[in-house]
Amino acid sequence: MRKKLIAGNWKMNLDFNEAMTLIAELCEAVDGNLDQKDVLIFPPALYTRHAHEFLRNASSGIQLGVQDVAATTDGAFTGEVSASMAKVAGADYALVGHSERRSYFHEDGAVLLEKTKRSLEHGLNVVFCCGEVLEDRKSGQHFDVVERQLHEVLSGLNNSEWDQITIAYEPVWAIGTGETATPEQAQEMHAFIRNWVKEQQGDARAAVVRILYGGSMKPDNAAALLQQPDVDGGLIGGASLKADQFTAIISA
Ligand code: PGA
Description:
Layout: E1 4-9, H1 16-30, E2 37-42, H2 48-57, E3 63-66, H3 83-89, E4 93-96, H4 99-104, H5 109-121, E5 125-130, H6 134-138, H7 142-154, H8 159-162, E6 165-169, H9 183-201, H10 203-208, E7 211-214, H11 219-226, E8 233-236, H12 243-251
Parallel strand pairs: 1-2, 1-8, 2-3, 3-4, 4-5, 5-6, 6-7, 7-8
Helix pairs in contact: 1-2, 5-7, 7-9, 11-12
The chain binds 2-phosphoglycolic acid.
């Protein structure tokens, strides 16, 4: 059985005090009780060290990630944060391939592959995001687009590297729009992705890899999405910024 994972992507939101307050509220709400679901948060990278110390002192079991890492190991790359820096600051996970990185920062498959490799090399688990834009879905290209995104980054990984991979399907037309994929649309794509993993890595890997859904997941639609057999959790943006909403999704 795959344990569900509920992940919150805070994006570039919350000042430091708000962020630490939200972390404290989540620790209190979860209260070490993570038997049913794993919980992971992606605060802004500058808060990683403080967030890590707080989560550790609270013995919360909540895991921590960064929203991005550099494609390179070190060197003259002004402004970048490397995977090893994120790891040392206390991150367990890196988010790679989010649609906002793909569109606003022009990150293509080649760059995302390097970011994935740097993360794996430095002991970070990767939540790799894929998903089609609305035009792709309207023209029936959504399976091809997702398959290409998966292929570009994940097809060359070896079996032990796959231990560190979680996939997030995030239809771009559902991110921050209030529009959600129906549970049937999510299940259809998740089954497609799992089948792709099976073709690449075999039955055993396909049976354990977690595939999250992201795109306007809220307390009122979470249960229906999470009940789908191939939906192993959520990657939540807007609703992860409010403790009561995120907690409601964790309990859904
Ligand atoms: P949303 O964001 O829940 O606000 O749609 C999801 C995401 O971008 O990961």
